Amino acid sequence: MISILLLYSCSEDRDDNLTLQTDAKTTFSFTHYWDDTQITSSDFNTIQYTNANGETLSIETLRYLISDVTFTKENGEKIVIEGYNLVNLKTDTNLTYSPLDNIPLGTYTNVSFTFGFDAEDNIDGAYLDLNSESWAVPNTPMLGSVGGYHYMQLEGKFTNSTTPETGYAYHVIRAADGNTNPPTIEETFIEVDLGPITIERDINFEIKMNIAEWFKNTFQWDLTVWNTMLMPNFQAQLKMNQNGQNVFSLGAVTQ
């Protein structure tokens, strides 16, 4: 009798401690490519990549910001994870991003994130950690007097058969034309859709950036013309936005 009672009691304890997982931790891992060739920080500072315009270039800096990871349910409801992640490939910093909020298990019609900040979040001087990283855009009339933050800094050197080794600074920000009155402002953040997913447990998404796309699709970038002073160049920022539409893709998903 005592043995039966003890067995029953132990069984009850095990049942009490048995909990079903109802939500999942999500992690985003960022990898970088030049078309099919993977790039790491060890590949920096060597002129070795050829863009669609025929210039050969190096990468010396690559930093970019993603924000507002969003999961869309089958009924159209969106779960938006407020927050951002500043990826720095040069220093191998923030190559993985695990939002604090877990996501309910289930099927989602789309997972997405914002490249840069949307208009609501791109508030001049609002983020002390980004300010300390020199990530803010100067609040000057030349840049439309709107301030805000960078979306990406891609820097290095380039050359071709007629051009000596020259530096480039491919900096992506909100497009602003300070030469008009009032300044012409156009939002150039990009909503990146990764597609549908069923989440059954903790999950890792590989986010692949094809750096070559910044220079070729849909606008063939000529570094001999547009290499520096691109932040106040309204047309250059619009072209960057066009080329950025196909830069990111979903790689391996593990759970």
Structure description:
The chain is mainly β. The protein has one domain (22-254). Helix content is 12%, strand content 40%. The protein has helices spanning 2-17, 128-132, 234-243; strands spanning 23-24, 26-34, 37-39, 49-50, 56-57, 61-73, 78-88, 96-97, 103-104, 106-115, 152-159, 166-172, 175-177, 184-186, 190-199, 203-210, 248-254. β2 and β3 (37-39) form a beta hairpin.
- The general outline is globular
Overall average pLDDT: 93
Q: Name the helicity range.
A: 10-25%
Structural class: mainly beta
Span from first to last CA?
Answer: 45 Å
Strand content: 35-45%
Number of helices: 3
What is the structure about, briefly put?
This protein has 255 residues and is mainly beta. The protein has one domain.
List the helices and strands and how they pair.
Layout (H helix, E strand, L loop, with lengths): L1 H16 L5 E2 L1 E9 L2 E3 L9 E2 L5 E2 L3 E13 L4 E11 L7 E2 L5 E2 L1 E10 L12 H5 L19 E8 L6 E7 L2 E3 L6 E3 L3 E10 L3 E8 L23 H10 L4 E7 L1
Parallel strand pairs: 2-16
Antiparallel strand pairs: 1-9, 2-3, 2-8, 4-5, 5-11, 6-7, 6-10, 6-11, 10-15, 11-12, 13-14, 16-17
Please tag this protein with its features.
12% helix; 40% strand; eight-stranded antiparallel beta sheet; single chain; mainly beta; MbnP-like_dom; 17 strands; 255 residues; five-stranded mixed beta sheet; Copper-binding protein MbnP-like domain-containing protein
